[in-house]
Specification:
6 helices, Metallo-beta-lactamase, Chain A, eight-stranded mixed sheet, alpha/beta, globular, 252 residues
C-alpha cells in the first residue's frame, strides 16, 4: 500500500472564527509526521476532531496576527498536560515562526514548546516533509509556506496582498491554499489582503493544478469568490470547507 500525503482543513475563516468553523488552518500528514499550519482562534478545538494535540510533530505560524496564532497559548498548556502524564520526559514541541518581531518569544513555553526561527533562506526537513518560506506583502511580516512531499507540492499563502513572491512560492503547486479575503469590488481597499480575482491571477501565473480559496470573509455569497477567481484561473477552483481533504496520490 502506497503511503499517502494528506492535508485536512481545520478552519477557513479570516479575521475571527464563525459558528461553524475555526479560522484558516491546516493539518498536514505525511511520512509519519503530523504538522499544524497556523493556530488561530478555534483551531485547537477543531484540530481534535482529527488528531490529539500530543501527536503533533511541529507547528508552523505564517505570522503573528491573532487569527493565525491566538490558540498557541492553549496549545502550549495542552502539551504541558500531556507531557506531565508521561513516564519519560519528552522533547519540546517545535513551533516555527519568523523572528522579525518580538512576538516569537511567546512560542517557547517552559520545557514544553520551543521557538524555531525561519526566514527565506531556511529549509526545514521533517522526515519527508520539506518546507520553504517566501516573504509576502502584509501589514506585518508574513510568509507563504511551500511544502514538498516526494513529488507533491502544496502551498499556503498566509496573509498577503498581490505580489511576485507569492507567485514564486506557488509555482506549479499541486494544490494552492490561497487567501481570498475580499470580493473583487473591494480589491486594494484592505491593505495586505487578496481579492478573489487576484488569487485566481496568482494561480494562473504560477501554473498551479488546484486553487483552494481560504481565509474567507464573513459576509456576502462565497460562490461569488469562486466565480471571480475562475474569471482569472482556468483550472480547478475549490471553496474551502472544514474537513476538506486533499490526499496524494489521489485515491490512495
Amino acid at each position: 500500500m502506497i503511503e499517502s500525503f494528506r492535508i485536512t482543513t481545520i478552519g477557513y475563516w479570516g479575521a475571527y472564527p464563525g459558528p461553524d468553523a475555526a479560522v484558516s488552518s491546516f493539518l498536514v500528514q505525511g511520512g509519519g509526521k503530523n504538522v499544524l499550519i497556523d493556530c488561530g482562534s478555534g483551531v485547537l478545538q477543531n484540530l481534535q476532531t482529527y488528531l490529539s494535540p500530543d501527536n503533533l510533530d511541529a507547528v508552523f505560524i505564517t505570522h503573528y496576527h491573532a487569527d493565525h496564532s491566538a490558540d498557541i497559548g492553549c496549545l502550549q498548556y495542552a502539551i504541558r498536560i500531556f507531557q506531565s502524564l508521561q513516564d519519560q520526559p519528552s522533547a519540546p514541541l517545535p513551533i516555527y515562526g519568523h523572528s522579525e518581531t518580538d512576538d516569537h518569544h511567546a512560542l517557547t513555553y517552559k520545557t514544553n514548546t520551543i521557538f524555531c526561527a525561519y526566514d527565506e533562506e531556511t529549509l526545514v526537513d521533517l522526515g519527508e516533509l520539506t518546507f520553504r518560506f517566501f516573504r509576502t506583502d502584509h501589514t506585518e511580516p508574513s510568509y507563504a509556506l511551500r511544502l514538498q512531499y516526494r513529488d507533491t507540492v502544496a502551498v499556503f499563502s498566509g496573509d498577503t496582498a498581490f505580489c511576485e513572491n507569492l507567485t514564486k512560492a506557488a509555482f506549479r503547486a499541486d494544490v494552492f491554499y490561497c487567501e481570498s479575503s475580499l470580493y473583487n469590488r473591494f480589491a486594494g481597499m484592505v491593505p495586505g489582503h487578496l481579492a478573489a480575482g487576484e488569487a485566481g491571477k496568482t494561480a494562473r501565473e504560477a501554473g498551479v493544478k488546484e486553487l483552494v480559496l481560504t481565509h474567507l470573509p464573513h459576509y456576502g455569497d462565497h460562490q461569488d469568490l469562486v466565480r471571480e477567481a475562475k474569471e482569472e484561473f482556468p483550472g480547478k477552483v475549490t471553496l474551502n470547507t472544514p474537513g476538506l481533504l486533499r490526499q496524494f496520490p489521489e485515491g490512495s
